[in-house]
Amino acid sequence: MGKITAAARGAQLPALSNLVRNQRQTPPAAAAAAKPEEDEKKKIWNSMIRFPTPNLSDAKSIFNSLISNPNPNPSLLTPKFFNSILHSFASISTLDDSHAFLNHMLKASPSFTPDRSTYHILLSHSPSSLPSVRKSLNLMLSHGAFIPDKVTTDIAVRALCSSSLIEEAVELVKELSLKHSAPDTYTYNFLVKHLCRHRSLTMLNSFINDMRDSFGVKPDLVTYTIMIDNVCNTKNLREATRLLGVLSEQGFKPDCYVYNTVMKGYCMLSQGGEVLRVYNKMLEEGVKPDLVTFNTLIYGLSKSGRVRDAKKFLSVMTEAGHMPDAVTYTSLMNGMCREGNALGALNLLVEMERKGCTPNSCTYNTLLHGLCKARLLDKGVELFRVMKAAEMKLETGSYGTFVRSLCRKGMVAEAYQVFDYAVESKSLTDVSAYATLEATLKWLAKAKEQGLAV
Amino acid sequence: MVPPRMKMAITENPKKLANLIDLVNLPTPLRDFLGQSQISRLGCFMRVWSYIKTNNLQDPNNKNIVNCDEKLRSILLGKSQIELIELPVLIKLHFPKEPK
After folding, report:
1. Class assignment of domain B4-92?
2. What is the CATH topology of the domain spanning A115-218?
3. Interacting residues of A222 by C-beta distance below 8 A, sequence separation 6+
4. How many cross-chain Cβ pairs, A to B, lie less than 8 Å apart?
5. What residues of A are in contact with residue B86 (Cβ under 8 Å)?
6. pLDDT tens digit sequence for A310-350
C-alpha cells in the first residue's frame, strides 16, 4: 500500500532539518538582510538589474548606465547593491564572464570594495566542477585576499554536491581543511548525508575516519542520526543497532530523533513488536516522544496488523498533548483496510473530519484502495468523485486497483474516465497509466473468453 | 525524476516501454486519420480515444460500446461497432512487432 511512508518520512525530517541551512541561495551577508525595509530595497534592485542576456558587453553597458545615473541614491551604492548585481549576472552567465564582469565593476566603480560574500556569490554560481570551483577560490585568495573560511567551504561543497560530484567535494573539503580551516558541523553533516544517499558505506566510513584522524572532526549526534537513518532505509537493522552502540560509546545520549529513526526502520520491516519495544525503551530512558514518534508507532503497529493496539495510542498521544493529524489517521485507516475493514476506515474518515482534521490525498488514496479491495466499488466510485472535485492526485497503487475493480464489474467506460483523470491531473505518467489500463483490458478480455467475468 | 516503480519497469523491461513510446512510421490509413506520418503507440491511442470523446461516438445506452463513424472504421478493421475493451488491441494491430 502506497504512500503511508509519509509517517516514516516524517521521522527523518525533523532530525535533518537542523542541517538545512540555506546558504547556497543567499550569501551570508545578504542573509542577514531579512528586515522588511531591506526586502523593499531588494525588490527595487531586482527590478533594476535583471540582465536580459548573458552577454558580457551588454551587461557592462547596463552596469555603466546604472552607476552613471545622475542622482544615485547613496544608500543604494553599498557592497550589497554591487553584490546583487553580480549575483543576477552570475546566475545567467558563465564563470569566465562573471569574473570579467567583476573586474569591470571594480574598474568602473572605485567606491566598490568586494567583500567576502562577493566571492561567495561567484563561488555559488560556479559551474559545478572541481576546476571551476578552484578557480573561484583562487580568485578569492589572490584578488581579494580573503582566506576561505567555513562558509566558503560550505558553499563550495553544496555547489559540488548539487551536481552529485561528491568525490570532488570530499577532496575539496580535505584540501581546504589542510590549508585553511576544517568544515563546520553543518558542512560535515551535509556531506555525510550525501555520501550516505549516493555512495557506499565503505566510502562514508573512510571519510569519517579520515576527518577524525587528520583534522579532529568527529561525528556528532546528528551525524549518527543520518547514518542510522540511512541504514534503516536499506533495512539493515543490524548495522543500525551497531551504530546505536557506537553512539552511546562515544558518550552521546540518543534523542527523540534517533529513536524515531530506529522505529521507522522496524516499520519498514513490518515488525510492530519491535517498534513498540523501542517506544518503551524510549520512555524508560526518559526521552519525551513527539508527534512523529506516535505517528511512526501507529503506522508500524497498523502495518503489522495490530490495529487494535494502534488505536489505543490515539488516546495516549492526545493525553501527551499531541493532536492526531492526517498522517495518524491515514496510518490507522491503512491498517484497517489491510484487515479488510474498509467500512471502519470510512467511519474513521468521518470521525477525523468531525475532529477538525483535514484528510489529504494520501488519506483518500488509502481509502480508495481499501474500498476497492473490499469489493465496495460503489463507495469507491463515490469517493473518487470527491477526489476528482478536490483535484487530488491518484497514486499508482490506488489507480491500478480502482481500474481493475471497475473493469471486473464491466464498467470499462468508467475505467477510461479514471485513466483520463489520471493523465489529466498528471497523477501518473501517461505511459504507466496506459500500461495499467492496457494490461487490465487484456486480462479482462481473456477472462471474458473463459466466461469468468461479466 | 522518474518514480521508482517506473524506473524498475524501464530497467526490467526496456523493450516493453520502447514499443509504447517509440515513434513509428505509419501505414496509409492511419496516416490519413491522424494527419501525421509518425506517432507512438501511446500517442495513437490517446488520439483515437480523444477522437471518440470529441465526436460522442460512445453508445448512449452502453458507454462501453463505440459506434464507429466512417473515419474510425477505416482504421479499426472496418467494424461498425467496437467495444472499449478491444480498443488497445485493435490499435496495436497497426504497430506490428519489429522483426528481430
Report:
1. mainly alpha
2. 1.25.40
3. A15, A16, A18, A19, A185, A189
4. 51
5. 441, 445
6. 888 888 888 988 888 999 999 999 999 988 888 889 899 99
